[in-house]
Amino acid sequence: MIYRTIKYCIFVIFTLTLIYSCSTEKNTVISRTYHNITAKYNIYFNGEESYKNGIKKINKNIKDNYSAVLPVFTDGDLKGSKSVLSEMKKTVEKSSKVIRKHSITAKPKRKKNGRLSPKEKEFFEKPEYCKWIDDSYLIMGKAHFLRKDYYPAIETFEYIIKEYSNESIKYDGLLWLTRTYIEMGKYETAGELLQLISSEKRLPKKIKGMFKAIYADFYLRQVKYEDAIPYLKSAILNTKKKKTRSRYTFILAQVYQKTGQNKKAFLAYDEVIGMNPYYEMAFNAKINKATLFSSETGDSKEIKKELQKMLKDDKNIDYQDQIYYALANISYKEGYLTEAIDYYKLSSEKSTINTNQKALSFLALADIYFEEPVYTLAQIYYDSAITFLDEKHSDYQSIYKKSRNLNELVSYLTIVQTEDSLQIVASLSEKERLKLIDNIIGKVKEDEARQKEQNKLDRINNQLTQNYQSRTDPTGGGKWYFYNTNALSIGSSEFIKKWGRRKLEDDWRRKNKASISFDDITTDDASSSDSTSNEKVLSNKSREYYLQNLPMNDSLIEISDKRIIEALFNIGKIYKEKIVAYKKSIESLEKLNEQYPDNSYVLETNYMLYQVNKLSKNTERTEYYKNLIITNFPDSKYALGLSDPNFYKIIEQKEKQIKGLYERTYNYYNEEKYDFVIENFHYVDTAFKNNSLIPKFHFLKALSIGQTMDTLSFKNELNDIIAAYPNDEIKNSANEILAYLDRKKESDEPEEEKSAFEKDTVSAEEKIVEYTYSKKATHYYVIVVESKKTDANRIKFNVSNFNIDNFGMVDFKVSSVILNDALELITVKDFKSKNQGMNYYESIVEVSDIFKDTEETDYRHFIISVDNYAKFFRSKNVTQYIKFFNKKYIK
């Protein structure tokens, strides 16, 4: 009996001790030990494991693009972030739970009448006594960062820096805060933080490598390669993890290559290979070494031998495109152009999965043919390169522009070639003409028969392949094509190899969906017809097909000549202005003048020839065309400009004068000085007759009349504009206003009821509130909703959930109050500064779920200082404060 009593007492004492230790209000050795152990092993462990699993998933799924400079960090990838949303959400939840349940901020009891030692004093001044709380804040911020929730991440890292300013975790917070601003593209703020960290003398050695890597990333993101080099070198020296060091070294090699330091790049790639990295990195290091070939870096025979050996290795089947590309680069550098072209073509053919490499191979071919120059072939390869090239490629815009220019050039070259050919055929005797056409038809039939035979062989080969797969792979064979994963894979690879990755849409084969050639709609059956017309669609194996477009009479020849004249003029212009091929431009323009001396462009053509010869520094021809224009076209602006060196200066001064006058007139209109607007129009209309800005002056005059006179006068002025400037775009604006005025007059519908936000604009004019702007003042976040249209409680609930998910460490107060009969306020308090408030506001903007069931017109939201909040609540004018908020906070 006594034994049972003792046992019971021990149980009660243990239970009471446990209950006592669970409280975070008491700060004792027992309570600290309990919360430290429970926090780590019960909650924090699970959150950390979820974070680690997310990082592993990112690293496993990341696919580096070795044709561009690798990113320093792999966890900033958008696709990677999307793939770990669930893991990071769990991490945030677990870390928030640790903070809520195990944070001990109460001070421990001090000894009576006892002096504290420096160590004891430091202990009593600690902001937190559970050692897993700061770790929870850090991992929470990192999880927000990986989810791309940058504003909650900033709040968390700033909290760590402030609350743990005397502990080493502060530096982790600073580094991750800097990374966040870099990811957001806020380089000015990131640069200030990096300078701040650089000045820190107590920066822990264990994070020095990461700090240098972040500094390098800061410069690489801004394409400041030279500035990044010393930080990359330092990051390599201060990083222990082999995989990370090899990545930094590879990036350093790429940067050396980008900055033309080829010898250093060659040695750095060699160093990467020596680190024995994973296969893809080692392979690309070898390829890039080969690309850097020069007399300084080694013997081309040895490099070629190594590349040929790599071609035979089964492991490199998917990398053959890159190997051929490297071989092509070597041949090109050695001056073996034909061999280089063959290798580039092989590279593009072998590239089935790596579309980026396919783009680079096409681009190399395009550049070669452009330099030759063979513009028709260059156009084909630039067009193909653009199909596969990543839009993030550094030269994408210039390549795209060059492709478009060549497309335009080739379209005109094709017109000239086609029309010349048609005229030659039309000039033949009927017997010769029909013989030529019959020869063409014979060739078409031969090509068609050859293609049919090839298709037959392809079908046999595909069948043999599928039969073999059905025997060797029981899970893939013996199925209908669309259920056969192997056959689908082969078909997909072949499709990508030929067409690239195309969007699912009609006419996916066409680069230009608007242009469809006659060949695309003809069929082999001469009797086939359009389903919507009775016109016969001719076969390309019939004589009529080739005879139909021949210019067989004078009127048709005249039409054909006009097409040639237009094309030759545009070819000369494109060569001069877009391709910058002066010799070709001169050839085209001279051909135009020789072949058609009375063409409608003769003055412009001669002036263009004058300009191109001047650019080519051909003094004799420049003078020839100058004298020709002055003699034959003495009254033209070109002749006046060539005769009087000051002619264009005078015109330029007049242009500046009228532009300045137009800006002043526009400002007068904005300032509601309508009389000055009308007066300026009449002055310009007299002093600068036929100037290109006159229609705009006239339009401002019409708008001023609309503000000062009746509707009829306004309409008459708009009609005058339409009649006076039928070819100017200002006519469209005048027509739109007239149409609006007519609709307004015809409409008998009652005016639509204004929203509660629109109604308060009246009171804004009656009483103007003077708001003050202070960055350091305490701020609130406010949502104003129309209570009749919106469920304010639902939004309040959404905000509370948002705070729990994203700001678990901050105890925000969410409240609601009636503003007037139509509007209700939801307020989140408090933010210690304007910056903290704006971080919260911008994070709300990023998360659409808060307003997912609310129309944009039914709410307004903003941050407001405490002093301004009182003024706002008294005035109850939302529109007026929103104007102030947009001007001072949003800008």
Molecular structure report:
This protein is mostly helical. Helix content is 67%, strand content 3%. The chain contains 40 helices and four strands. A four-stranded antiparallel beta sheet has the order 2-3-1-4, with helices on both faces. A hairpin with a 4-residue loop joins β2 (813-818) and β3. α4 packs antiparallel against α6 (133-146). The protein starts with a helix and ends with a helix.
List keywords for this structure.
mainly alpha; 4 strands; 40 helices; 891 residues; 4-stranded antiparallel β-sheet
Per DSSP E runs of 2 or more residues, the count of β-strands stands at 4
Shape, principal axes of CA atoms: globular
Please, what is the average pLDDT? 82
Tell me about the biggest sheet? 4 strands, antiparallel
Q: Which strand order does the major sheet show?
A: 2-3-1-4
Would you tell me the structural class of the helices and strands? Answer: mainly alpha
Q: Would you identify the regions where 5 or more consecutive residues have pLDDT less than 50?
A: 11-17, 473-490, 506-533, 762-766
What's the helix count? 40
Radius of gyration: 38 Å
Cα distance, first to last residue?
82 Å
Give the amount of beta strand, in percent.
under 5%
Residue share in helix? 55-70%
Short description:
The protein is mainly α and 891 residues long.
Question: Helices and strands in order, then pairings?
Answer:
Blueprint (H helix, E strand, L loop, with lengths): L1 H21 L6 H33 L16 H6 L1 H18 L15 H7 L8 H14 L3 H14 L5 H15 L3 H12 L9 H14 L3 H13 L4 H17 L3 H13 L4 H13 L8 H13 L7 H14 L3 H14 L4 H17 L3 H14 L7 H32 L2 H43 L12 H15 L18 H4 L21 H5 L6 H26 L2 H14 L6 H14 L3 H14 L4 H7 L3 H24 L3 H14 L6 H15 L2 H14 L5 H17 L9 H4 L1 H6 L12 E8 L5 H15 L6 E6 L4 E9 L2 H13 L12 E7 H10 L2 H13 L1
Antiparallel strand pairs: 1-3, 1-4, 2-3
Helix pairs in contact: 2-4, 2-6, 4-6, 6-7, 6-8, 7-8, 7-38, 8-9, 8-10, 10-11, 11-12, 12-13, 13-14, 14-16, 15-16, 16-17, 17-18, 18-19, 19-20, 20-25, 25-26, 26-27, 27-28, 28-29, 30-31, 30-32, 31-32, 32-33, 33-34
